[in-house]
Amino acid sequence: MADPTARSATDPGLAHPQPQPRPQPRLDLLPELTAQFAATAAEHDRTGTFPVANIRALHAAGLLSLTVPSRYGGAGAGLATVTEVLGAVARGEPATALVLAMNLLFHAHVGDPPGWPAGTYERVVASCLDEGALINALRVEPDLGTPARGGVPATTARWTGDGWEITGRKTYSTGAPVLRWMLVWAATDPATDPRPPSSGAARVGSFLVPADTPGITIVRTWDHLGMRATESHDVVFDRVRVGPDAAVGLPAGEVPLPFVPAAAAWNALAIASIYLGVAEAARDWLVGYLHERTPTNLGAPLSSLPRFQSAVGEIEVALANARGLVRAFAQRSDAADPDVAAQVNGVKTAVTAAAVKTVTDAVALIGNPGLTRANPLERHLRDVLCSRVHTPQDDVVYATAGRTALGLPAAGPR
């Protein structure tokens, strides 16, 4: 059984802070927050610990509840605002931006959740507004991998007569030690399911589990090349008991849960904006380095050389175009443009490819200093490479686009 007092190696007190007055969003503080987060980013990358102080700062600035619907006391912000916020946070410290994104995406699309028992979402949103509590969906498993490619989770939910018992293991659980709520993807046990499909198969859906529930253990497996401070450890659920109202995203019998196209657009553009923020931070450091570096044989800063000016100009144009693409599609999503859903995955792929290329170009431009751990460019390179593993992954995006262009039917999960 996990010890609730030891959930976070960085700051156990994050789990249950004292309620404070609900802050209003302060977008004007973003430049200050970017600089503040950047000051400790290298240390958290080195130690692999999540920057808890950053979450407190975001809560104080009213940014953790940015997408909570206004009827619940939040700002109800759209995707255009969210991508700007995530980009600014990521320029300072991208692990913070990724955990923030998961929290914001949840609240953006669960404002009136179908199938949620009365009062359940209200408890989650109140903890976010009052205490800065975080939530994330735990879906990936050691054997199955990402559910985006299909399959049924090995994690099970067994009906006990007065609630559910969750057993299983989740991996790559972003921000695991600092979550208050875990949205666990699991399959029901057909033998005990009170509302089984007529086929006798398991129902697959989400269960809301408070992170301090007995039976939860965080196994510190996260030792990654990049995004090290996300603490995306494994989480083990050993007969974790929750109430009947925990089944918050479970289909009723044969009726599947509705697909929300907007949620896919939000996910793709949020991820794109985060890694674009990493590339922008790399560009910022490169510009400063070229102004400061003055070789003795040159007698002038490297920024005075046309070769470096041209190379920086190429990076600048690529990043400006990528940021413009994110902004344009975020605005189209906010305007409910029906064509966005079919195009936005390609935007994520294009933007993250541009982010990776600009950072690798920056490293190639300056040589050894770019791979020296004393300089942040090395960290930015490791972080930006992680953009490729997020759903939707490039091979799926390209295959889907190719089948569409060839007039072929969509492929099934793989």
From TrEMBL:
<dbReference type="InterPro" id="IPR013786">
    <property type="entry name" value="AcylCoA_DH/ox_N"/>
</dbReference>
<keyword id="KW-0285">Flavoprotein</keyword>
<keyword id="KW-0560">Oxidoreductase</keyword>
<feature type="domain" description="Acyl-CoA dehydrogenase/oxidase C-terminal">
    <location>
        <begin position="265"/>
        <end position="389"/>
    </location>
</feature>
<dbReference type="InterPro" id="IPR052547">
    <property type="entry name" value="Mito_Isobutyryl-CoADH"/>
</dbReference>
<comment type="similarity">
    <text>Belongs to the acyl-CoA dehydrogenase family.</text>
</comment>
<dbReference type="InterPro" id="IPR036250">
    <property type="entry name" value="AcylCo_DH-like_C"/>
</dbReference>
<dbReference type="InterPro" id="IPR009075">
    <property type="entry name" value="AcylCo_DH/oxidase_C"/>
</dbReference>
<dbReference type="Pfam" id="PF02770">
    <property type="entry name" value="Acyl-CoA_dh_M"/>
</dbReference>
<dbReference type="Pfam" id="PF00441">
    <property type="entry name" value="Acyl-CoA_dh_1"/>
</dbReference>
<dbReference type="Pfam" id="PF02771">
    <property type="entry name" value="Acyl-CoA_dh_N"/>
</dbReference>
<dbReference type="InterPro" id="IPR006091">
    <property type="entry name" value="Acyl-CoA_Oxase/DH_mid-dom"/>
</dbReference>
<feature type="domain" description="Acyl-CoA dehydrogenase/oxidase N-terminal">
    <location>
        <begin position="36"/>
        <end position="103"/>
    </location>
</feature>
<dbReference type="GO" id="GO:0016627">
    <property type="term" value="F:oxidoreductase activity, acting on the CH-CH group of donors"/>
</dbReference>
<feature type="region of interest" description="Disordered">
    <location>
        <begin position="1"/>
        <end position="25"/>
    </location>
</feature>
<dbReference type="GO" id="GO:0050660">
    <property type="term" value="F:flavin adenine dinucleotide binding"/>
</dbReference>
<keyword id="KW-0274">FAD</keyword>
<feature type="domain" description="Acyl-CoA oxidase/dehydrogenase middle">
    <location>
        <begin position="141"/>
        <end position="240"/>
    </location>
</feature>
<dbReference type="InterPro" id="IPR037069">
    <property type="entry name" value="AcylCoA_DH/ox_N_sf"/>
</dbReference>
<protein>
    <submittedName>
        <fullName>Acyl-CoA dehydrogenase</fullName>
    </submittedName>
</protein>
<dbReference type="InterPro" id="IPR009100">
    <property type="entry name" value="AcylCoA_DH/oxidase_NM_dom_sf"/>
</dbReference>
<dbReference type="InterPro" id="IPR046373">
    <property type="entry name" value="Acyl-CoA_Oxase/DH_mid-dom_sf"/>
</dbReference>
